[in-house]
Structure to design on (657 residues):
């Protein structure tokens, strides 16, 4: 439960050893390296600023690899479905990785893939053009005149055109009046393929008439021969093109077998590119490269061991600049660690803040369970989460978080009697009914006692808010900001509890009525301290004004506490919908012949939907309670994440076991 202490370091290495040192640092992944613009040494000695040179050859190779992978992936037999989504990277061992990187045949595979892709694109384009030409010729297939003879003669001109079917009768009569003739050859898409023959002297009038009839002129250039001959010719060429295309697809399928090799090489060269970019953007002299960065203090001996293995390299610690932003990393152990997911979603704490993970963890798990309040759903979610934990690659904190929250759901569901809604009561199996009743003695049934659920939601909300105030109080004490700790936090803790004690005394709960007035009067003291000392900037009038405003903001605490009623609302909705699904299942079971099957579909589908939507709502609303109601009491965030220089893999997962 702490923010990890960081050490700023400077590594100086000879240019000849810089690539090997960077490879070792990248492989170990424990040191964050700053570029020349971020490094303090550049500010002190501007002449060391690196003149960054882009490793264009590597960038071009990676671009080619990326395009090649995208191409062959369409023809490779890659796993699909849920498993591929959970584990998208292929697991390989280090020996396979090294063997692939050293394979001299892969550049030829890339070149062959590029050629195949180009040829497939060309053949597809040619096929499309041939199909378009055949569609163009199709309406004219009964034309026996060679197409090259259609055109201008000594005294007449023949035109090929497509005319709308609704215009053909009108146009035929008008052309006759102009001394022209029209002959239909065929039809397609509600248009007639026509040959129009006109006297040259009347050609312009004929063309004007055709334009008004929305004709489409047709040209056969540079074709020669009859349409039937042309169709046969182009059909043959299309068949040949399709055969070639089929061969290219088979060749692409063979290349698809090399997908993994290409992916390995992509990840290898991508890491190499990162090393080159880091080296080229680091401060440097003519013969040395200066690497400035950060390392966790606990990892410093490990870093020292790495650097000491390079004779022309050295490692020293340096003092951060006064205004320098130190990167932040949080470290938690055991059951608390999965809840780091929640903190990281919000943002890292600042270096001088506390890590909120340990404080939010128990509340988050409890709130999630109360939002679902169904032990049956919890059991299913535990099974699914364990499956995710086993199959997911990389960071598995979220799957572990869901296991913890699912266990909380089981406990909360058992204590409130929720087992797939009222499934136990509907089934009416005696020993299950007795077991549920026995467990309920330690809890309550929300359907019978909703007020208990309401009060419980308010109570745990109040406890979480007080926890946030206490965390802020002790944090300020640790920072030796005693006045602020007392006047801005302890005062609220005392005053809120005084009001709570007074309220309980009026209801004859926990606090005797005779002490109620005492607590109400006691609240005056922290209220006065809030008005007088909660704001320490500006003049006396401004301080008092802000103090009054701060005191008035106590009304916001009521709103914060009421926000926790959403725990009850979501829990009741989940239970109510589950009960309704069970009733639908009972009704479906009464259908003749298919009743049991239909009931099974209704129950499985309905409860799966209810569990999914309720779990999503539980996560989102529990998250909101942490971020909106809890965190503002003591946590600001905004720290810069510690990002060590390490190897990144997009396509593969190296098993080092």
């Amino acid at each position: 439960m702490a923010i990890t202490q960081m050490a700023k370091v400077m590594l100086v290495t000879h240019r000849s050893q810089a690539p090997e040192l960077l490879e070792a640092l990248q492989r170990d992944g424990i040191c964050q390296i700053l570029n020349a613009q971020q490094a303090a040494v550049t500010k002190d000695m501007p002449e060391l600023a690196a003149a960054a040179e882009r490793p264009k050859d590597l960038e071009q190779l990676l671009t080619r690899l990326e395009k090649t992978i995208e191409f062959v992936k369409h023809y490779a037999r890659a796993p699909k479905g849920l498993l591929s989504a959970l584990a998208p990277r292929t697991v390989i061992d280090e020996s396979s990785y090294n063997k692939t990187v050293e394979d001299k045949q892969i550049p030829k595979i890339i070149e062959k893939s590029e050629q195949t892709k180009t040829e497939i694109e060309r053949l597809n384009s040619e096929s499309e053009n041939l199909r378009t030409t055949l569609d163009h010729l199709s309406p004219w297939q009964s034309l026996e005149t060679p197409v090259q003879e259609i055109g201008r003669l000594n005294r007449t001109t023949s035109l090929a055109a497509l005319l709308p079917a609704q215009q053909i009768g009108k146009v035929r009569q008008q052309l006759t009046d102009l001394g022209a003739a029209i002959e239909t050859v065929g039809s397609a898409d509600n248009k007639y393929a026509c040959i129009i023959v006109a006297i040259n002297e009347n050609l312009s009038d004929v063309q004007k008439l055709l334009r008004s009839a929305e004709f489409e002129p047709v040209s056969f250039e540079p074709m020669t021969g009859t349409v039937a001959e042309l169709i046969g010719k182009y059909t043959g060429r299309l068949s040949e093109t399709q055969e070639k295309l089929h061969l290219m697809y088979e060749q692409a399928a063979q290349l698809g077998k090399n997908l993994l090799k290409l992916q390995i090489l992509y990840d290898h060269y991508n890491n190499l590119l990162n090393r080159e970019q880091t080296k080229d953007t680091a401060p440097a002299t003519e013969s040395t490269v200066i690497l400035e960065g950060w390392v966790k203090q606990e990892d410093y001996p490990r870093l020292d061991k790495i650097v000491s293995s390079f004779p022309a390299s050295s490692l020293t610690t340096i003092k951060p600049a006064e205004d320098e932003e130190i990167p932040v990393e949080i470290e938690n152990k055991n059951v608390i660690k999965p809840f780091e997911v929640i903190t990281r979603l919000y943002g890292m704490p600042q270096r001088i803040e506390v890590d909120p993970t340990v404080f939010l963890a128990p509340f988050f798990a409890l709130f999630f369970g109360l939002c679902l309040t169904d032990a049956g759903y919890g059991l299913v979610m535990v099974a699914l989460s364990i499956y995710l934990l086993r199959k997911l690659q990389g960071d598995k904190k979220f799957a572990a978080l869901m296991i913890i929250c699912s266990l909380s759901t089981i406990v909360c569901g058992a204590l409130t009697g929720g087992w797939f809604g009222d499934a136990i009561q509907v089934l009416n199996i005696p020993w299950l009914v007795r077991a549920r009743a026995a467990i309920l003695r330690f809890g309550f049934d929300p359907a019978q006692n909703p007020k208990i659920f309401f009060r419980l939601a308010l109570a745990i909300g109040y406890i979480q808010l007080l926890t946030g105030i206490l965390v802020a109080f002790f944090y300020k004490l640790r920072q030796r900001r005693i006045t602020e700790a007392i006047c801005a936090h302890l005062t609220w803790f005392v005053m809120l509890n005084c009001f709570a004690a007074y309220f309980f005394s009026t209801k004859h709960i926990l606090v005797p009525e005779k002490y109620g007035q005492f607590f109400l009067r006691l609240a005056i003291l922290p209220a006065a301290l809030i008005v007088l000392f909660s704001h320490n900037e500006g003049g006396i009038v401004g301080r008092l004004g802000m103090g009054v405003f701060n005191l008035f903001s106590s009304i916001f605490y009521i709103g914060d506490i009421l926000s926790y009623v959403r725990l009850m609302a979501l829990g009741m909705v989940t239970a109510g919908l589950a009960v309704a699904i069970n009733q639908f299942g009972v009704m479906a079971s009464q259908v003749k012949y298919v009743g049991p099957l239909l009931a099974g579909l209704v129950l499985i589908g309905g409860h799966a939907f209810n569990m999914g939507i309720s779990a999503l709502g539980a996560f989102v609303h529990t998250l909101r309670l942490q971020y909106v109601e809890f965190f503002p009491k003591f946590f600001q965030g905004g720290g810069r994440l510690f990002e060590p220089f390490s190897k990144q893999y997009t396509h593969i997962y190296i098993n080092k076991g």
